[in-house]
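FAQ
Q: What does a multi-component entry look like?
A: The components come first, one per line:
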Amino acid sequence: MKESINIGMAGYGMIGRLHSMNYGQLPFIYPGTIPRPVLHTVCASSAASAQAAAREGGFHHYTTSLEELTASPAIDVIDVSLPNSLHRKAVCMALQAGKAVYCEKPLAATLEDAQAMAAAADKSGAPFGMVFQYRFLPAILKAREILAAGRLGRIFTWRAVYLHSGYQNPQRPMSWRMRKEEGGCGALGDLGSHIIDLLRYLTGDFASVQGHLETFIQQRPIARGAAEMSTVSVDDAVWFKARMKNGSVGTLEASRFATGTMEDLRVEIHGERGALKFDLMDPGFLHYFDEAKAQGDFGGERGWQRLESAQHYPGALTPPARAPIGWQRSHTENQYAFLRAISQNRLPSPGLEDGLKVQQVIDAVERSAKAGGTWINV
Amino acid sequence: MKESINIGMAGYGMIGRLHSMNYGQLPFIYPGTIPRPVLHTVCASSAASAQAAAREGGFHHYTTSLEELTASPAIDVIDVSLPNSLHRKAVCMALQAGKAVYCEKPLAATLEDAQAMAAAADKSGAPFGMVFQYRFLPAILKAREILAAGRLGRIFTWRAVYLHSGYQNPQRPMSWRMRKEEGGCGALGDLGSHIIDLLRYLTGDFASVQGHLETFIQQRPIARGAAEMSTVSVDDAVWFKARMKNGSVGTLEASRFATGTMEDLRVEIHGERGALKFDLMDPGFLHYFDEAKAQGDFGGERGWQRLESAQHYPGALTPPARAPIGWQRSHTENQYAFLRAISQNRLPSPGLEDGLKVQQVIDAVERSAKAGGTWINV
Amino acid sequence: MKESINIGMAGYGMIGRLHSMNYGQLPFIYPGTIPRPVLHTVCASSAASAQAAAREGGFHHYTTSLEELTASPAIDVIDVSLPNSLHRKAVCMALQAGKAVYCEKPLAATLEDAQAMAAAADKSGAPFGMVFQYRFLPAILKAREILAAGRLGRIFTWRAVYLHSGYQNPQRPMSWRMRKEEGGCGALGDLGSHIIDLLRYLTGDFASVQGHLETFIQQRPIARGAAEMSTVSVDDAVWFKARMKNGSVGTLEASRFATGTMEDLRVEIHGERGALKFDLMDPGFLHYFDEAKAQGDFGGERGWQRLESAQHYPGALTPPARAPIGWQRSHTENQYAFLRAISQNRLPSPGLEDGLKVQQVIDAVERSAKAGGTWINV
Amino acid sequence: MKESINIGMAGYGMIGRLHSMNYGQLPFIYPGTIPRPVLHTVCASSAASAQAAAREGGFHHYTTSLEELTASPAIDVIDVSLPNSLHRKAVCMALQAGKAVYCEKPLAATLEDAQAMAAAADKSGAPFGMVFQYRFLPAILKAREILAAGRLGRIFTWRAVYLHSGYQNPQRPMSWRMRKEEGGCGALGDLGSHIIDLLRYLTGDFASVQGHLETFIQQRPIARGAAEMSTVSVDDAVWFKARMKNGSVGTLEASRFATGTMEDLRVEIHGERGALKFDLMDPGFLHYFDEAKAQGDFGGERGWQRLESAQHYPGALTPPARAPIGWQRSHTENQYAFLRAISQNRLPSPGLEDGLKVQQVIDAVERSAKAGGTWINV
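Then the predicted structure of the entire assembly, as tokens:
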């Protein structure tokens, strides 16, 4: 194993900063199991912001040029934390330069971009890791194990929502996140991508979808308090029904209009022999209902079990396993899984194909919505 | 006010027995406010069961003839607790005889039946009360007040589910509830009718719907352990999206395949200025989020409030207002509201129109589902 | 089995009314299993209130004389729902007359009264049932089964609280409940008696206690808004530590000063091999932690199970078993258990001895508190 | 402001590792607000472990000598993460050398040690920060604000528990944590110190206490599966009642025998005008009951509000404010508050006096327990 691995950060917004912080935690949590990640170079859009990022993060170098970043022979990994519409360019350059890529979700702004990136990855052969951090919550890891062991039997139905609030205020001014050409996507891409991936991860591939997009507030002030208005070009909320390849049927909803919610990502899965529930606002626990137990002692021990799941980070040395974990830890573990995979010459998981499949579902939902809600095969 | 009011029970299954028991509680909970309900006559399908019902319930008389029941001059109210497909006949006979009617939900097995009953009611002029008991949970009463006062502002979105379990076991044998000609409806009519009514009660009328019905297990043993199979002719689960007349959009789901659930009726409503959540499994509380409070002291008191709602049964003398209430109480209060209305010559609420409107939504959902999920105006 | 059983109600306050209402429900819930309870005679302090009670409840007779009530040869059961300080007189008269007695908790206002009643019961031989209704919540029935089966192993520790609110307002005026000579007891007798009984029921007898009583507000207005003050002579809150005969140690708290609480009775028990939790505000569920499961599949299924417990009312015909139950049901079941026992010539449980043992603990706690908190053997 | 601040780590167990990891996060969360913490030197008990710690953490130097560590002129802060019994020596040396000290809780193994450290701090004048990390949970920060603003009115009563599990297994072998001479304390010092500090922080100083210590299992195998036994010399669990200087009365419990618990630290406070509840297992929320709201619209909005509290880390740039936080963050914030205070020449809070006062309560509880539970003034 190499002593260290050099990270090149493409983008240093909230997410770029978060990734950078998390790399530095890995040697303490999992000492000796991966090369030490080194914050080598940060690339931001202006020299001033790049320099500030370098100072803040302790990067050895900074640049405003993706070309320079991806060409640097010292760099092992390009971490793509850019706005969605810039993913394609950065990823393709990194892959062409043979760098390992670690890419934030969604993979791309459009299915076309995603397919181009997949082609570039095929050609390059360099390892590619996706960020779908919720896979790494211990509750989700345990859900995957329970499902993989067939403990739920045939899956009949499920529901998944990812609810944010804040946009329901009509005075909230326009921003790049509400313009398709910049943000690339609304609630569907931003929030929906997470629940699409989780459903795939837990129950397998999508077969067909029936979608509905809604933009509740179509005109917003161009700035706080401004009289001039601008047109919102993305969805505020999306609902879609889906049939999975395993025959199950369910609904997904992603919304920025759910007053009162914070990070309310909830998944519920019902099978012939059991059921699972998860809520991101209580991220350390998986709720499991085992139909078999209903037949046991004491007239049956029928009831949901709230499973602790801390033991799913087995080698972790700190913090203590019984203490509650937060949202941040899911990112740290995603980064760890990526670095461990590439240091062992294994394919990172989730990888580009996972990002691409999510993009295919998003695209099918958009096409169904445009067609007034017909079923579309994925 | 009359001293007493004579009840004629049409049907004495689980629900008929429940109503009968509840009438006897009203003089203790609300003494002196309504005529004392008297269990006068019970009508069941066989003489033996009618006699047993009379003995059990302390009815003065029993019969097997709806004609006899509805013709009895001593009877003031006909309580229709029969299977859905028999509602039309009993209701029309009672109305023709000028009796007040108290009818279990859903109003009818088909929209056609419901319309015939509405015509009979128009002609008769006799008072008509529906059972939609969940309206009478204190949390729902409070939700109605909060919404009526405009505290949520413009409503954007909502979701409602009513989930039962038990049918997901493929060994569960066929029963009348799974045969359209007898039960009249599957999850849509049985469970869906409740959440359709609640949504209407809270947010107003439905404008259009897009439905999907699913029968997961189409063949079932004719009896426990039997090899011979029979065909299920109703839905196991239903999903529908709806646009309300107030412009809001949301989803409803009713299912008998939700392993792990009990009486999981949940409603969530998000508006511009606040939000509400309710769960029948925690029936004494309404969760309320007030966006305005987020701007107050202490950096904002942002968070859901779990409202006690016991004060919504203001004259109730027993049990103590702070003690947890159960499912049964919603029925008791529905019966009380009906008897109080007719004793004061007011129109019972909910009434026939509420039953009819629910039936129209059910019918529209079925037609949309048959057409592959097109939007249908209600 | 007799056809019917005649009830004589001694007292018709909130609790007397509740009992009267509940007797009428039993034939519907458990038809054919007990003689039909008949509301025969009600005894209240004034002729007007007795007559009103009779009319409201449909009693055949009314009286203001306990002598007349207990002497009536037609009456089978005397239901003692009087203020605590009057229990002794009514119970002793009923027992002397050979009537079965059903007595509200606490058994008596003082240990001396309780002992006199025990002596009267011994002499009479008539059956004696106590009201400790929380024993009849299905969650508590299940907890008892789990404990009786040894599933928790050696019990180490537990905690129990019963918290009410309302008295923390210093403007709340004086009432009979705050005068020792009338109410007989404060939080200790009123609320503490319930948790003392539950602990006994679940984990066995008390060995020794160490108590502390507090009266936070010692002077209160004699009426709402009055300037004149009166002295509170009972405890507002009580805390006590106890060692049980099984060697376990824990704490109990009862309070009327717990702002924000409703009927917050909570019990938690920790043993070598498992643990249990119960909260009266969620009365249909028992939380069970099984240490053994922590060693099983998937790195251990470690976590609390929220057990449904509806199956603990096995013969109940209504309401449906999966629907949430409320506080009232615990009383109905206590009454049913009493009537079933006496109709089958079995000893009612809980019985007088249970009431007496609770009184002994109360007395020991009071003596310990007076002595500044020394340990006192029960 | 200096560019950087050099940390000398005394001890590198689980907690030392955690602190070291957290220092590296501060520049990302709060860029530009404190000097960059630099992991300068680590001191561990053996050369091998010190070298391994240095490699893992990226420390510039390592040593086995506290003398060398505290004498190093380059070092600004000594972080004392040693076993309790070694605190006194390390702290006194650091103070004598004029270093800022950051000390894990409890301050010391004995009150005598704590007083010696206080004397050394007085003499030195160097800044002294304590670790009582739970003060820095946003819910606790908000609770402090609400209490400081008098929103609860007069405080009447409260309860606090800190429950761990694991020791209830009699096969669990002896360890240094169960030997007084090494661990210094059992549940009282380890867990009790946290809830003592929280109560002080929220409601002010302790006036008097009445304590009880229990060692349920007094003999344990010297190693897993060993036949030879060793004597436990610390408490497994502690209960104490306390009267605070503000007149309120309540109970505290700390236990390692609470089967089924994880990090179950719960605090409930009841005042005349409101109440607060907190549970460490749901660390992002404070539950607040405002008696005043019970008098408002809709028959009163009576009910607990679950306050989000993310806005209490106002300058934090990552992770997003609405995402759930975990246990780790409380430590990160404690470290940040300490470094910010000393970089601004303010007294760190919590400081030595807070550690000392907790030690005085611990000592009083031990003395009361030894005396059979008499009240002891703190």
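Q: Is there any commentary attached?
A: Sometimes. For this entry: DSSP finds eleven helices and 17 strands in chain A.
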